[in-house]
Amino acid sequence: MKFQKAWKALPVKLRKTVALVIGSTSILFGALLIVLPGPFTIPFVIFGLMILSLEFVWAESLLIKVKHHAKKTVPRKLRKNK
To answer: Between the CA atoms of 61, 64, 59 and 19, what dihedral angle is there, to the nearest 10 degrees?
Structure first.
């Protein structure tokens, strides 16, 4: 609640700039983890889209699509079948 009040109190241009920098950085870091050794690519991309969706409508629709596809990639069972 307090975050939303403080966020909305900022000027629009500043909010968009902050969201763009933090969101894009997170997405780029997630993209780098695809080629560099490291886990957890999808959470960084989703976090970046969440930040971007605070100010950009296109990011919100993309976030919905990414979450839908991310659910498909999570293995349902990690144990061996008997």
So the answer is: 150
